[in-house]
């Protein structure tokens, strides 16, 4: 990834490519599972992709990135289930796991970068008077 590239756009594109792949896989699920497990898998991937796009275009992205991480974890379990009941083969499961891990790593890195850029909350007068921040032993309950 280029240094000047917007991480959100890169992750959103990766998740879109994964969505295309997932859609093609779910189409091949047997009817008994296509509208249950298949719909859940596809719906989660759509939600993840849309959340990442939304996070790209907003300043308050922390909650959206946390939600994407949670949805990725749910997706891991659904793909594991799909592999266990042989809806997908081992190669497809490995591909899905690699894609989910990559999107998760990139999202986690974006979360850390966003957290580091978030302005620190300044000390309020009330917080200053409560603790030892003032340097006064009378205001520090630990020294009483």
- Total E-strand runs: 0
Runs in which pLDDT lies below 50 for 5 or more consecutive residues are: 132-144
The CATH architecture would be Up-down Bundle
Mean pLDDT: 85
H and E order: HHHHH
- Please describe the biggest sheet, giving its number of strands, its sense, and whether it closes into a barrel: none
Tell me the structural class. mainly alpha
- Shape call: elongated
Here the CATH topology equals de novo design (two linked rop proteins)
Number of domains: 1
Using the CA coordinates, give the radius of gyration: 22 Å
What is the fourth-level CATH superfamily? 23S rRNA-intervening sequence
The level-1 CATH class:
Mainly Alpha
Determine the strand fraction and express it as a percent band.
under 5%
Helix proportion of residues, in percent? over 70%
Cα separation of the termini? 55 Å
Count of helix runs: 5
Describe, in plain words, how this protein is organized in 3D:
The chain is mainly alpha-helical and 144 residues long. The chain has one domain (7-118): de novo design (two linked rop proteins), CATH 1.20.1440.60. The protein is built from five helices and no strands. It has helices at residues 7-27, 31-56, 62-84, 90-117, 125-130. Helix 1 (7-27) runs antiparallel to helix 2 (31-56). It starts with 6 loop residues before the first helix and ends in a 14-residue tail after the last helix. 20% of the residues are buried.
Secondary structure layout:
Layout lengths: L6 H21 L3 H26 L5 H23 L5 H28 L7 H6 L14
Helix pairs in contact: 1-2, 1-4, 2-3, 3-4
């Amino acid at each position: 990834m280029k240094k000047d590239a917007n991480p959100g756009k890169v992750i959103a594109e990766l998740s879109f490519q994964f969505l295309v792949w997932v859609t093609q896989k779910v189409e091949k699920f047997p009817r008994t599972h296509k509208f249950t497990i298949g719909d859940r898998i596809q719906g989660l991937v759509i939600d993840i992709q849309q959340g990442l796009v939304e996070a790209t275009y907003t300043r308050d992205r922390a909650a959206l990135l946390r939600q994407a991480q949670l949805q990725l974890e749910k997706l891991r379990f659904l793909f594991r289930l799909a592999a266990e009941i042989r809806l997908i083969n081992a190669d497809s499961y490995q591909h899905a796991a690699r894609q989910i891990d990559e999107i998760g790593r990139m999202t986690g890195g974006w979360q850390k970068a966003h957290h580091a850029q978030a302005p620190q909350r300044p000390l309020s007068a009330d917080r200053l008077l409560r603790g030892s921040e003032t340097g006064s032993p009378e205001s520090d309950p630990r020294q009483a």
